[in-house]
Structures are given as structure tokens and as C-alpha cells.
């Protein structure tokens, strides 16, 4: 629904969310909490912001709830929620039947000890892309990485940053990553199309990072990694999901095939039974509860803010800064980057910035596939370099726990070694001014009259 009202006050709920979430994180950080920015749940902060939006809206309680429900029950929001649930179920079933360990061991078995830093980056990149989770990638590989680094006389910063960087590569590109889901659904584009644009930005960054790791990441001595036994058949579900998604199959079918293929392989290999399979699906659903509720609340709150003129007010102010298509793209990148620095969560950043980015995209004719890519790229860039983000905090914690030399690591010590994220930021900006990544866009131009749901032409055609 199109709204014409303009009001900066309408953005107060967004501001309340940021202040509460960021403020709580700073307070807990001052108290010395390791996971300071995750002590106060983002869902609770968003719930308080929703209450503020209800208080500010006009009309009866029923009318206010109708506005909220219109946003929360939007087809894009509900589609996003279902994909989150299925992605969570697939990740849980695959992990439960041993696909995660098999993938890691398979990759390590092919890595020469002298190239371990670059090899870990490649393994983390594949694992993150297959599973859709940078956190899972970091948790699986950091204990191995720190052991190899200390045995081989290699800089722990280089090795750990290689793993985190590879995880962020996968988080950015994976078809089942919550960031990809949020970016594509908020801009109403297909995952495959966003992947094609995104891949041409991420690939050169990954190649350059790999070259640097191969040059500067050679150990003093070749350290043995240990037992690398694996069952190759357990990797099939990850490969199936990746290949089917790239072929353009509907994402719901892709994830359902992934869930049941992982369950079947698990039962055939004795890793799962019927009850274990069912429980893994349920655990996967429950594991997505934070992003599920966050998206639901954010969808409803965004509709209330739009109704009261908040989105139009932002667009009106941005017109004084954005002079055209390229400056609009820079603005979108800056918007999601700021949101990530404020929330320390790239999925939350995309959800918060998504509606505003879509309006900017439509106003300045930035192809939505391009916008989705920018949202995902720059949220992952900053999520990988902020020292209070979960990725670096967990990496530092696991490295400290796994160190055989009794070393203590801080998240800030890895920031300078996050070569992939810094290089990705450079290529992301370069792609705006030299649109080398827009080949898929030029071959398949966006039809603004038919593909843009907000366009006047589309509205008139729908009315007929």
C-alpha cells in the first residue's frame, strides 16, 4: 500500500530499537561480558519498539493492529519465515547425521600441510556456502585451525581470520543463509539472480585473499592434522541443495529435498532413526526462533512506520544527498553498514534496512537484484570486522579454549587479519562505479512496469 504522508517522528520506533539494543550491548561490554551485544535479546528490543509504534499510531486498537498485521502478514514476510524454518530444519538434520564433520574432514584430507591457511579458507568458504551459517563454520574449524597454527609455527591471527573470512564468504553467498533470505525477499528478487551478481563481487575478493594466504600463510613446519576419516555419502545433501538452488529450482522444494535426503542418508548409515530425524527437524525449527520473531515484528512495525510517513521522510531527506543511481547504491551500502555496526547482527541489519533500501532502489532505479547484493555484501563486510560481532567474539573464545600453549586471544586482535572482508568491501564499492558484476542484469533487464510491485503501471494492471 502506498502512503503519501511524511514525518520524521514516525521513525522513533526504529530509533528506540537501535538505542535499546546498542545501549544494552555497550553496558554489558563495560561490565566485561564476552558476548555483550547478545546478552539483551534483539527480539525483546524489537518488541519494545513495536509497542512504541502502537502507541504512536492513530485510531482504535483494532485499526492499529490491522496495520501491524498487514505488514506482518505480507506475502514476502511470510515467505521469508517459511524459508527460515526449512533452512533451520535442513541445517539441523544434516549436522545431526554427520554431514558437517564429513565435509570438514573431506576438505582437510586434500589440503597439503604447507598450504594450510589457504586450504582452511577454501574449506570454510565451501562449508559456509553449503550450510548457510558462518557461526557453524567457525565453531567447526577454529579448534582445528588453532591447533595446526601452533604446531606449524604459523600466525594464529592469519589462520583464524582465514576461517572467519571463509565463513563470511559462505554466509554472503549461500542460498540458505538467513542473510540471503532476508536480502532477496525484502527486495522481492530470486535467490539465483542475487547470487549471480553477488558471486562476481565475492569471487575476485576470495581469489585475491587466497593468493595472500598462500604467500604469507605458509607454516614453518608441516603439522599433522590428525584423524580425517569421513563418509563421502554424507556430503550429498549439501551438494544437492547447492546445485539445485543454482539450477533455479524453487527454494521450498530445494530445502524439502535437502531435509529428507539428509534424513534418509542418516537412517541408512545408522546415524539417525525416525525419532531422531523428527526431533532434528523440530530442533531446526526452534533454532530459527530469534530471526523468525524478529522478522515478524519488524514487518509489522515497518508498515506502521510507513503509514505514519517515516519511510517517505527518509526518502525526502536522501534526495538531497543522492543525485542518481550510483550515489543511491552508495547510500544503500552505507545504510546497511550503519545498521550492522549498530546491531552487530547482519541479518538484523538487512531486516531493518530492507524496506528503506527497496524504496531507495525504486526511486533511483537501482535494479533490485543489485540492491539485494549490496545489502548482503556490506552487512557481511562489517559483521566480519566489528570486534563485538558474534563471529570474531566466538572465534576468539574458541581459539583461547583450544590453544595448547595457553594463549589468550581477543576479538580485536583478528580485525587487521580479516583480509577477505576488507577486500570484499573494496570490490563492492568498485562494482558500483565500474559495474563489472552486472552482466546478469544487462542480459535480463528489470521490467519496472511489470516486476516492481509498487509501480503505478503494475497497480493499474492489477486493478483491471
Can you give keywords for this protein?
mainly alpha; 0% strand; 73% helix; globular; 464 residues
Please describe what this structure looks like.
The protein has helices spanning 12-30, 42-56, 61-72, 75-96, 99-109, 116-131, 134-152, 156-173, 178-187, 191-216, 236-246, 251-268, 274-287, 289-307, 310-318, 325-343, 346-363, 368-383, 390-402, 419-433, 439-443, 448-451, 456-463. The chain has 464 residues and is mainly α. The mean pLDDT is 84. The two termini are 17 Å apart. It has 23 helices and no strands. The radius of gyration is 22 Å and the shape is globular. The longest helix has 26 residues, at 191-216. It has one domain.
Beta strands, count: 0
What is the general shape? globular
Mean pLDDT: 84
Number of helices: 23
Order of helices and strands: HHHHHHHHHHHHHHHHHHHHHHH
Q: Which strand-content bin applies to the residues?
A: under 5%
**Cα radius of gyration in angstroms:** 22 Å
Biggest sheet record: none
Helix content: over 70%
Task: For the record, give the distance between the C-alpha atoms at the N and C termini, rounded to a whole number.
Answer: 17 Å
Count of domains = 1
Structural class: mainly alpha
Name the poorly predicted regions: none
Strand-helix topology:
Layout: H1 12-30, H2 42-56, H3 61-72, H4 75-96, H5 99-109, H6 116-131, H7 134-152, H8 156-173, H9 178-187, H10 191-216, H11 236-246, H12 251-268, H13 274-287, H14 289-307, H15 310-318, H16 325-343, H17 346-363, H18 368-383, H19 390-402, H20 419-433, H21 439-443, H22 448-451, H23 456-463
Amino acid at each position: 500500500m502506498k502512503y503519501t504522508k511524511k514525518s520524521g517522528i514516525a521513525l522513533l520506533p526504529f530509533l528506540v530499537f537501535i538505542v535499546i539494543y546498542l545501549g544494552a550491548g555497550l553496558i554489558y561490554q563495560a561490565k566485561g561480558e564476552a558476548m555483550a551485544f547478545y546478552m539483551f535479546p534483539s527480539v525483546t528490543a524489537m518488541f519494545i519498539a513495536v509497542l512504541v509504534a502502537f502507541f504512536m499510531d492513530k485510531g482504535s486498537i483494532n485499526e492499529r493492529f490491522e496495520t501491524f498485521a498487514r505488514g506482518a502478514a505480507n506475502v514476502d514476510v511470510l515467505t521469508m519465515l517459511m524459508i527460515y524454518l526449512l533452512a533451520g530444519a535442513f541445517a539441523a538434520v544434516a549436522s545431526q547425521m554427520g554431514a558437517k564433520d564429513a565435509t570438514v574432514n573431506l576438505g582437510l584430507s586434500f589440503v597439503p600441510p604447507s598450504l594450510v591457511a589457504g586450504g582452511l579458507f577454501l574449506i570454510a568458504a565451501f562449508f559456509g556456502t553449503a550450510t548457510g551459517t558462518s557461526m557453524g563454520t567457525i565453531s567447526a574449524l577454529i579448534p582445528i585451525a588453532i591447533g595446526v597454527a601452533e604446531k606449524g609455527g604459523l600466525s594464529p591471527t592469519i589462520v583464524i581470520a582465514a576461517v572467519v573470512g571463509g565463513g563470511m564468504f559462505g554466509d554472503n553467498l549461500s542460498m540458505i543463509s538467513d542473510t540471503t533470505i532476508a536480502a532477496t525477499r525484502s527486495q522481492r528478487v530470486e535467490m539465483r539472480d542475487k547470487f549471480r551478481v553477488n558471486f562476481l563481487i565475492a569471487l575476485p575478493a576470495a581469489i585475491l585473499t587466497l593468493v595472500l594466504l598462500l604467500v604469507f600463510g605458509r607454516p614453518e613446519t608441516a603439522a599433522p592434522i590428525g584423524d580425517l576419516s569421513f563418509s563421502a555419502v554424507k556430503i550429498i545433501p549439501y551438494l544437492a541443495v547447492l546445485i539445485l538452488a543454482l539450477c533455479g529450482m524453487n527454494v521450498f522444494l530445494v530445502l524439502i529435498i535437502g531435509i529428507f535426503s539428509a534424513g534418509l542418508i542418516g537412517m541408512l548409515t545408522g546415524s539417525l532413526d525416525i525419532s531422531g530425524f523428527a526431533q532434528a527437524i523440530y530442533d531446526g525449527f526452534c533454532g530459527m526462533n530469534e530471526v523468525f520473531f524478529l522478522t515478524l515484528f519488524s514487518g509489522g512495525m515497518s508498515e506502521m512506520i510507513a503509514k505514519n510517513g517515516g519511510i517517505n521522510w527518509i526518502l525526502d531527506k536522501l534526495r538531497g544527498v543522492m543525485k542518481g543511481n550510483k550515489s543511491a547504491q552508495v547510500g544503500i551500502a552505507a545504510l546497511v553498514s550503519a545498521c550492522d555496526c549498530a546491531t552487530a547482527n547482519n541479518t538484523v541489519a538487512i531486516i531493518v534496512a530492507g524496506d528503506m533500501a527497496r524504496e531507495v532502489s525504486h526511486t533511483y532505479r537501482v535494479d533490485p537484484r543489485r540492491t539485494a547484493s549490496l545489502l548482503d555484501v556490506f552487512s557481511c563486510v562489517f559483521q566480519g570486522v566489528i570486534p563485538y560481532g558474534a563471529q570474531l567474539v566466538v572465534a576468539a573464545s574458541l581459539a583461547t579454549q583450544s590453544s595448547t600453549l595457553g594463549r589468550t586471544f581477543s576479538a580485536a586482535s583478528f580485525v587487521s587479519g580479516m583480509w577477505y572482508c576488507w577486500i570484499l568491501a573494496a570490490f563492492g564499492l568498485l562494482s558500483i562505479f565500474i559495474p563489472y558484476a552486472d552482466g546478469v542484469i544487462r542480459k535480463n533487464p528489470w521490467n519496472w512496469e511489470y516486476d516492481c510491485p509498487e509501480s503505478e503501471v503494475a497497480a493499474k494492471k492489477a486493478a483491471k
